[in-house]
Amino acid sequence: MRDAEVDRRLGDRLAELRAERGWSLGELAERSGVSRSTLSRAERAEISPTAAMLNRLCAVYGRTMSQLLSEVEAEPTPVVRAADQQLWQDGAAGFVRRSVSPPHAGLRGELVEGRLAPGADLAYDRPPVPGLEQHVWVLEGELEVTVQDLTHALGTGDCLRLRVWGTTRFRCPGTRPARYVLAVVLP
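and the corresponding structure tokens:
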């Protein structure tokens, strides 16, 4: 689902973004809350970044995760076939993310499919872009979405609309996986 080539291109892009701003690894570590050594290893593609780490870096760089991942794709295309949609996986967290929308760095709206294993729990300490609009539509299973201190229990077919200003958490409380669509719109 995830290959070394994607990790290499992602690492290269992360290094480029840091260099464009003239930041040292230490400065980026301070801004993102990710350790210098972890940042260095991710830029060299020695490790695959976790969803939480990419979220922190996206917040620092002012882009969504889909925008960042689209920047490591080949040429943009108006149609992306199901078999060609990029999968990204955070195995330790039990999270699989499919970029459904055709990748394009300048997009304002995008669709993402998320899958969480039973018991999976993803916590984000900040939005990648403050004020980001999200629509969470549960296709299968149960999903708990916590926005700051308010938890929404969602079942199959339920849809939650929110603006993200602070912490969020996606958790699969059931005994079977949760599959959902996340529609993201930049402010």
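(Above: one complete record from the training split.) The chain has a mean pLDDT of 90.
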